[in-house]
C-alpha cells in the first residue's frame, strides 16, 4: 500500500525559532521523555510496537497493487509499470490478461517510461536514489536487454520525449546551473545532447514537428500560468506564442501530422470573454484559423494525443473527478463512438502505432489501476491486466459518494459548496455513530479523485471509520476561479473549508463529531497542522506526512530548482507583507494552539519539503506537553515508495488512529 495511494511533491530549527514557537503556548508543559529508536533505515520516536493482530488484518490491504500503461512496444505489446516486490518496475504484457514479463529490477522505483518509435527497439526510464528526485534517464534496449545511462548522473532530468522517427530525444534538465530546468535535445541513440532552451525557469518539451526540425516547448510558472513557444532546432531560435489575456494555463501542445496546425489545451480568453475551464483548441498559424473543440464540455481537458497517421485525436475530460475519453476523426473533428468504459480516473492513454487501437489505464474507487485496450473499428474493450487486491472480496469495497457541503462564503448570493468524496462503512450498525477521518490532498493545485485507496477501504471495512476526502478551494478541476481562491494571503480560507466540513459532520446523524481526525501529505500536511491550530477543540488527532510547518523556512530550504514555482503559489517570503502573513498562519509559530495528539512522518531525502519541517514542528508541539509520534525513513523522499516502508507507516498510522481517534481510550483525552 503505497503512500501515493494513501494520499488518487534545509536548516535546523534555530533556538530563536523554537522560542517563538513555544512562546505562544497557552499551557506550556515539560515535554515527556522521548524514546528514539534507530532500526535500519528507520528512525522513530514514541511509536509503539504494532500488535500482530493489526498487522495480520492489514496484510491483504497492503498487498493490493495496480498496473499503469506506459506505451506500445514495436511488437504490439504493452509496456506497463507495476510492483511485484518492493518497488514499481517496468513490465511487458503481450496479450489480454497475459503474463507480465518484468524487465527492470532495481531497489529504487523507475518512472517516466517512454517507448522509442522508429528503428530503436526499447524505452527510456528515469530512476533516482532514495527519493531525492535527481532522476537520471536510462535507455533499455529490448533486443539486447542492456541498459545505458543517458544523462550526467548528477542533475535532475525528467519528461523524456522522442521525435516521431525516434532519431532525437528531448528532455528537461537542471544540468546547466542546478536551478533552472532547461530543455535538452540530442540525436538518438548515439548523439550528444545540447541545451536548446536556456531562458531560465521551468521548461519542458511538448512535441516535435513531423519533420523533426522544430520543437514545441512550454514554460511552467504555476497551475494558472504557462507560456508556450517554438524552437527552431537548427538555429536555436525560440519564438514565444502570444497568450490571449496575457496570462493563462496552457498545456498539451501537439503538432498536427501535416505540420500546418497545432492542438493545445488552454483557459485563455475567447472573444474577450474569460474562460473558467481548460478547453481543447486548434490553431493554424498561417491562416489564423482558430477552433474551440471541447467548448460544450464544462470541465477541464487534458491528456491529448494524436495517432501517427494523423487520422484521429483523443483527449480526456475530467468531469467531477471522473475521466471521460473522447476520440475525434480528423480533419473534420467528428466524435467517434466508443465502447462503454469502467467509471474512474484515466491515466496514461495512447494510440497504437497503426492508430487502430487505444491503450489506457483506468483506476476506480473499488479497483486498483488496470490497463485496457479499445479496438476502434470493432468498438470493443479488452482488459489486458487484472491487478491483485490481496485476495480480498472486491465486491465489498466501499464506493464513495460525492457530497457537497456549504462553506463560509457565497457565490451569487448562495453559500459556496465544497465537493468531497464520502466513504461510508457498509456494515455500520444502525444508531451507532461513526468516527471520521478527513483526508486532505496535497498540491495545493491537485485534486482528490475517487481512485482506489487501500487505506480508506481498510478504515471503512475493518475499523468502521467514515472517510471524507474534500477538494477544498485551491483544488484543480473546478475552474480557474476556484483554483485561485487560496493563493497568497488567502491561504487560510482553505483551512476554513475544513472548519465548514466539521460543521457538516456535526449535522450528520451517523457521524460522531466528537471523534474526528485529519490526515494529509505535503501541502495536505500543512492543512493538517493548520486545522489542528484552529480546531483542536473539534479534532481529536492528526497525521502529517511530509508536511509544511512554516512557509518561510520551507521556501528558504526547498530545493532551488522549485523555489520560484512555490513562491508563485504560496507567496514570496522576501516581501515583508507576505512574510507577515506567513508568520501569522505558521503552525510552527502557533504550535501552542495544537492541543491534539499528532503523528508526523517524513522521508529524510525529501527535496520538496525538507525533513527539518517535520523535526521543528515535532519539537514545538512536544513543548506544549502534547503527545507526538515521529517516523522518518532514510531512503525515502517526498512520500514512501518502497513497500516495506509504506507498510510500516500504514500500520503505525492505523495504530495511532486506533489509540487516539477510534478507541474508548481516546475519549478519556477529552
Q: What is the gist of this entry?
A:
This protein is an alpha+beta fold.
Q: Characteristics of this structure?
A:
670 residues; Rossmann fold; four-stranded antiparallel β-sheet; 35% strand; globular; disordered N terminus
Topology:
Elements: H1 3-6, H2 15-23, E1 36-39, E2 42-45, H3 52-62, E3 67-72, E4 78-83, E5 88-93, E6 101-102, E7 110-115, E8 122-127, E9 136-141, E10 146-149, E11 157-162, E12 168-173, E13 182-187, E14 194-197, E15 202-208, E16 214-222, E17 225-232, E18 238-240, E19 250-255, E20 262-266, E21 279-283, E22 290-292, E23 300-306, E24 312-319, E25 322-329, E26 334-335, E27 345-351, E28 357-364, E29 367-375, E30 380-383, E31 401-411, E32 414-423, E33 434-440, H4 454-461, E34 466-470, H5 480-483, H6 491-506, E35 511-521, H7 523-535, E36 541-545, H8 551-557, H9 560-570, H10 576-585, E37 598-603, H11 611-622, E38 628-633, H12 643-662, H13 664-667
Parallel strand pairs: 33-34, 33-35, 35-36, 36-37, 37-38
Antiparallel strand pairs: 1-2, 2-38, 3-4, 4-5, 5-6, 7-8, 8-9, 9-10, 11-12, 12-13, 13-14, 15-16, 16-17, 17-18, 19-20, 20-21, 21-22, 23-24, 24-25, 25-26, 27-28, 28-29, 29-30, 31-32, 32-34
Helix pairs in contact: 3-12, 6-7, 8-9
Describe the fold and architecture.
This protein has 670 residues and is of the alpha+beta class. It has a domain at 3-62 and 392-667: Alpha/Beta hydrolase fold, catalytic domain (Rossmann fold, 3-Layer(aba) Sandwich), CATH 3.40.50.1820. The protein contains 13 helices and 38 strands. A ten-stranded mixed beta sheet has the order 1-2-38-37-36-35-33-34-32-31, with helices on both faces. It has a four-stranded antiparallel beta sheet with strand order 3-4-5-6, with no helix packed on it. β25 (322-329) and β26 (334-335) form a beta hairpin. The longest helix has 20 residues, at 643-662.
